[in-house]
Amino acid sequence: MELFQIIILLLDATFRVATPLVLAAMAGMFSERSGVVDIGLEGKMLGAAFAAAAASSAAGSAWLGLCAGVVTSLALSSLHAYACVTHKGNQVVSGMAINIMVSGLTPTLAIAWFHQGGQTPSLSGDARFQPITLPFADAVREIPVIGYTYAELISGHNILVYCAAASVPLVAYILYKTRFGLRVRAVGENPHAVDTAGISVELMRYKALAVTGILCGFAGSYLSTAHGAGFIREMTAGKGYLALAALIFGKWKPVPTLFACLLFAFTDAVQARLQGVELPIVGVIPVQFIQALPYILTVLLLAGFVGKANPPKSIGVPYIKER
Amino acid sequence: MSDATAKFGAPAKVPAWVNLILIPLVNLLAAFILSGAVILIVGDDPLQALEVLIYGAFGYPDAIGYTLYYTTNFVFTGLAVAIAFHCGLFNIGAEGQALIGGLGVGLAALYLDFMPGWMVIPLAIFAAALFGGFWAYVPAYLQARRGSHIVITTIMFNFIAASIMTYLLVEILIAPGGQSPESREFAEFTWLPYLHDFLPFPNTPLNLSFFFALILSGAFYYFMWHTRWGYEIRVTGQNETAARYAGISPARNIILAMVISGALAGFVGVNEVLGVHHRLILDFSGGFGFVGIAVALMGRNHPVGIFLAALLFGALYQGGSELAFEMKTINREMVIVIQGLIILFSGALEHMFRPRIESLFKRRKATATAEA
C-alpha cells in the first residue's frame, strides 16, 4: 500500500504540472500545424497569467480572470499573426519579441497597479479555481485500489485540469475530423494547394492562431488562478518552451504530445521527490540533470536518434501568393 | 524604350541611406512611441523618462563607462547572431553559448593560475572561444548532418547550458565554505585590466574587453567581405543550391559559421567573468544573448551597424537602471519592454513601413527621370 500511495501521489503531482503543458502544447499544435512557428507560447502564457490574476483580484471572480487571460493571450496571438502572416515577418523573431516584451510588461504593470514588487495580491476564495470533488468520491474512497485511485487521483482537481484532459480528444477531433482541421493541416503542408482550392491561406492561419491564443490563455490562467494563488514575475519559468519541446517530441500529433507532456511532468514530479535520495547502482541523480532531461530528449529526437520527427512541411515559411 | 520600362520587374533602387538609416530610425521611433504610451499608462511622463534615460546613459563619466561596458557584451552577441544570419541560420542560443564560454573562462582562471597572468588571460580568452564554439558546434552539426532544426536545438541548448551551470556551481565549483552558488574569486593577476587601471577614468566595470570587441568587429568585416571563407558563408546563406553547384559545401559552412558564432558569444564570458565579477556566478549572461538578436537585426548584420545598435542597447541598459531611481512608477523592467518593442518593429514588423517608404522614394525617382 505504501508504494501504491506514493505512485498515486506522484501521478497526482504529474497531472497538476502537466495541465499548463498540455494546454500550451495543444495551443502550439494549431499554430505549428498551420505553418506558423510559435516560440511565443511562453510570452502568451505569461501575459495571460498576469491578466487573469489582475482581473481576478480586481473582480473577485476566477472566471472573469480566465476571460481576461484568454483575451490577453488572443491579442498577443493576433499580433504574432499580424507580423508573421500579414507582413510576412520572421516568425521566430516575432515570437521572441513577444516573449521579451511580455516579460518586461508584466512586472511593469504589476508594480504600477499593485505596488507589490511585481506580484499581484494573493488570491483566495472565488478568485481562484477551487478543487472539484467528483460525485461519489468520498463514498468510494474505502474501496481498495480503484476507489482510492478515483478519490485521490481522478477527483479533487480544479476545473482547468479537466479542461486540459478534455482538450486532447477535442483537438484530435478538430484536427482530423472537421473541415477546419483539414484546412489547418493543409495550409501547414501545402499552402499553394489550399490557395488553388479557393481558400484564403492568410485567413486560415489567422484562425489557427486565434485558437492558439485561446488555449494559451487557459494555460496561463491556470498558472496564476488555479495552480498558484496570484501572479509572480516570470512565473511561466520556461513552461512555454517545455510545451514546445513536448509538441515536437510528440511529433505534432495530439495523443503523442499528451504523453510527452505527461512524461515531462512526471520527470518533474519524480525530481521533486528524488532530491538527495540515493538510488541503487546510479547513486544520487543530480536534480539539474532531471530538469534538463526533457530538453535533452527533444534534441535526441530531433537528431533522429529517437524515431523520426516530421514537421509540417511549410512550417516557418510565409506564404506569398503568386501574381 | 525608356529606362523605366527597361528595368520593369527588376527591384528599383532606393538610395542606400534610406535602407541603412531612415528605415531603422522609423522602426526605432515606432518602438519608442509605443514605449512612451506604456509609460503614460503606468502614470509617468514619457519625455521626462527619456531625459532621465539619456542623462543616465551619457550624462557623466561613470555613466559612459557603464554604457560602454554593456555595449561590449552586445557587440559580442550581436556579431555572433550576425555571422549566423549571414549563413542563413538563426542562432537563438547565444545565451547558452555565452554561459558555457564563461564556464571556459572560469575553469581556466581557477585551475591554471599557477601560470603567470600574461599566459592565463590569453588562455582564458581562448577557452571562452573553445567552449562557446563547442556549444554551438553540436546544434550546427545536428543541423548540417542530421537535419534537426537549429532554432529548436539552440533553444534546448540554452536550457541545458543553464542546468549544467547550476549543477557545477551548486555541487562542484562552489567556493569552499560558501553558501551561494558561486566559485571562489580568481587570483588578482588573472583579472582583465580595467580601463581606469591605466587611464584617467572613473571607477567603472569598463575593461579591456571593449577594445577586444572593437578589434573583433574589424576582423569580422575583413573575414566576411574579404576572405574566401566569408564569401562561402554568405553564398551558403543566400542560396544553398547555388552554393552546392559552385562546389561550396553548405554543411561545412553551417558548422564553420556556427562555431565562430558560438565563440563570439562566448566572449561575453570574458567581459563578465574575467573582466568584472572575477568569479563564476549564475546567470551572468543576463539576457545579452537574446538582445544580440535585436542588435544584429538593427545593425543589418554589419559591424558598424552592430556597434551603433549595441551602443543603443548599452545606453538603454545603463539608462534603465537610472529610471528606477528617478521616476515614480517605472523600474528596470521598462527597458525590457523597450527592447521587446524594438525587436518587434525592427525584426518581425520590418516589412510594415518598408514598402511604403520605398515606394515613396521610387515614385519620386520615377518623376525625376520622367522630367529629365
TrEMBL record, chain A:
Domain of life according to the entry? Bacteria
- What keywords appear on the UniProt entry? Cell membrane, Membrane, Transmembrane, Transmembrane helix
Bilayer-crossing regions:
48-71, 92-114, 159-176, 241-265, 285-306
What membrane topology does the annotation report for this chain?
Answer: Multi-pass membrane protein
Among InterPro entries, the record links this protein to: ABC_transp_permease
Asked if the Swiss-Prot or TrEMBL record annotates the protein with the keyword Cell inner membrane, the reply is no
On whether Cell membrane is a keyword of this UniProt record, the answer is yes
| Cell location | Cell membrane
Which Pfam family, any one of them, does this sequence belong to?
Answer: BPD_transp_2
Question: What is the official name of this protein in its record?
Answer: ABC transporter permease
Q: Which lineage? A: Bacteria, Pseudomonadati, Pseudomonadota, Alphaproteobacteria, Sneathiellales
Automatic annotation (TrEMBL), chain B:
Q: Point out the coiled-coil segments of this chain.
A: none
Where in or outside the cell?
A: Cell membrane
- UniProt entry tagged with the keyword Phosphoprotein: no
Q: InterPro entries recorded for this chain? A: ABC_transp_permease (IPR001851)
Q: How does it sit in the membrane?
A: Multi-pass membrane protein
Q: What is its main location?
A: membrane
Keyword tRNA processing in the entry? The reply is: no
| Transmembrane spans | 20-43, 63-85, 92-112, 118-138, 150-170, 206-224, 254-274, 280-297, 304-320, 335-353
Q: Which UniProt keywords apply?
A: Cell membrane, Membrane, Transmembrane, Transmembrane helix
Its protein name is ABC transporter permease
